[in-house]
Amino acid sequence: MRPLLTLAAAEACGGAESEAMPLACAVECIHTYSLIHDDLPAMDDDDLRRGNPTNHKVYGEGIAILAGDALLTQAFEIAAKCNAWPRYTHQDIVLEIARASGSLQLIAGQVADLEGEARKDVTIKDLKYIHERKTSALLCCSVRLGGMSANCTPAKLEALTKFGYNVGLAFQVIDDILDVTQSTEELGKTAGKDLNADKTTYPAVMGLEKSRREARRLTKKAFDALEPFRGRARALQALAEYLLHRTN
Amino acid sequence: MRPLLTLAAAEACGGAESEAMPLACAVECIHTYSLIHDDLPAMDDDDLRRGNPTNHKVYGEGIAILAGDALLTQAFEIAAKCNAWPRYTHQDIVLEIARASGSLQLIAGQVADLEGEARKDVTIKDLKYIHERKTSALLCCSVRLGGMSANCTPAKLEALTKFGYNVGLAFQVIDDILDVTQSTEELGKTAGKDLNADKTTYPAVMGLEKSRREARRLTKKAFDALEPFRGRARALQALAEYLLHRTN
Question: Is position A147 within any domain?
């Protein structure tokens, strides 16, 4: 999903796929590293991912930790090797990835998620804090890197940021909904996990119907952000539509 | 030790400490991340580091994994924010750190170390492979970044590479020696660990005296590499001397 968003954002800004591809790969390295570490016994302790046993189930915890470390490092190597433009330099690109993945965004979200599991009083505000950092930050980064690879204007970068932020939040609300409505087989990961872990989720707090409405509201905000691209953002729109209607 | 090497290398090349300092910090972030992950139960399973309980002992495994991830990411943010020169750009600096820390160097060393623990037939050649990747790669990177921050010539960068490589190997041979000759209190980390884990070490394979001679030989090679700097590399020389004579 994230590399597709990078390529689609580049397309929306009139860029070439070949220029966006390395950054799409860097984004996927970051995402995969975060999943491998997130699935570890000391974190979410998950046995299944994308319908397959998780990394540590197959290779052991030590190798899973190192695989995540290697992918995180690889993302920066790829980013430093890509083509860059005067408007968006290697410095901008590396900073973009480092900030989205760093201690104020992705890691802060993971820490809050981990600490939330030990508490019973997690609010919707806490949940949004986590979703913004665990999901929106990297989705924003994914589309912004696509725009940067296409040498887009600052105004378009701003529009992509709004799109990525709202798609990220919508994505997480839908994730919460799917966890309670789908089977493990349909999801490709353990279903009902949040419920069993007594985790605060959107459906648990505001009910299923209201959660679905919230997901639609956020997706609409994402669509609205694409206005400046007019007809060029069809791929980005299609990806957002897919996110709203996905079943796993 | 590693940030001091960065500052000393910058000094040897006539650079300013203020220019080298961000890169010294980036190097320390990488080193500390690698220690936190290396101490985890799934890796070396160590309870003590620098005389204090290890990160996961104090904060739990989940937070220790995330602390390492955050420090690794932080290194790249710091590197991308430093000043850069036409000769050594942000691209060069980020690539330098990514390669030394990546799947062909630091991570490859950790994987080989982890796999070696399960085997009884680790040779001196295997051990050197591990030391080159687990230690020399980052020590090389530390001094090279110092040289880069001082806008040094390619010949001087080459000399720093040789120095860092040999200091790294010497450092590890001495680490092996200290593990069998010093107490836990003197080391600030658990002594005799390699011996108890039945790990292949230099003293175990070639004996203490030969290991000490090997450390001296490697340190001499490191000193010889500093010849092009003449009188300017006194701090680098002092650090190498300290490494050979340290007791913890």
Answer: yes
Q: Which pLDDT belongs to residue A161? A: 97
The mean-pLDDT minimum among A176-185, B47-56, B92-101, B187-196 falls in: B187-196
| Cβ <8 Å between B80 and A91 | yes
Asked if A62 has any chain B CB less than 8 Å from its own CB, the reply is: yes
Per the domain annotation, does A32 fall within a domain? Answer: yes
- CB distance A159 to A226 below 8 Å: yes
Give the residue from A90, A96, A97, A117 with the most B CB atoms within 10 Å of its CB, the best one to mutate. Answer: A90
Q: Which residue has the higher pLDDT, B225 or B240?
A: B225
Counted residue by residue, chain A has a size of 248
Report whether A192 contacts A180 (CB < 8 A).
yes
Query: What single string gives the DSSP state of each residue in A53-111?
Result: E-HHHHH-HHHHHHHHHHHHHHHHHHHHHS---SSS-HHHHHHHHHHHHSTTTHHHHHH
In a domain, A97, yes or no: yes
Q: State the CATH number of the domain containing residue B135.
A: 1.10.600.10
Count each helix (H run) and each strand (E run) in chain A, helices first. Answer: 13, 2
Residue A62: per-residue pLDDT = 97
**Residues of chain A under the 70 pLDDT cut:** 183-187, 189-198, 247-248
Please give the C-alpha separations between residue B69 and each of A123, B108, B130, B160, in angstroms, as whole numbers. Answer: 27, 17, 22, 28
Cα of B64 to nearest chain A Cα, Å: 9
pLDDT of residue B247: 63
Domain containing residue A146: 2-239
Tokens (6 digits) for B5: 């090497």
Between A90-101 and B90-101, two packed helices, what is the crossing angle to 10 degrees?
A: 40
Structure tokens at A97: 């990835």
Q: With a CB-CB cutoff of 8 Å, which residues 99-128 of chain A face chain B?
A: 99, 101-103, 107, 110-111, 114
In a domain, A217, yes or no: yes
Cβ-defined contact of A74 to B102 (cutoff 8 Å): yes
Which of B32, B54, B65 should be substituted to probe chain A, the one whose Cβ sees the most A Cβ atoms within 10 Å?
B65
Q: How many domains does chain A have?
A: 1
Please indicate if any CB of chain A lies within 8 Å of the CB of B224.
no
Which residues in chain A touch residue B96, judged by CB atoms under 8 angstroms apart?
none
pTM of the model: 0.92
* CB pair distance less than 8 Å for B70 and A107: yes
Which of these, B248, B204, B213, B47, lies nearest to B116 by C-alpha position?
A: B204
Find the distance separating the first CA and the last CA of chain B, reported in whole Å: 12
CA distances from B157 to A145, A195, B147, B151, B153 (A): 33, 57, 6, 9, 6
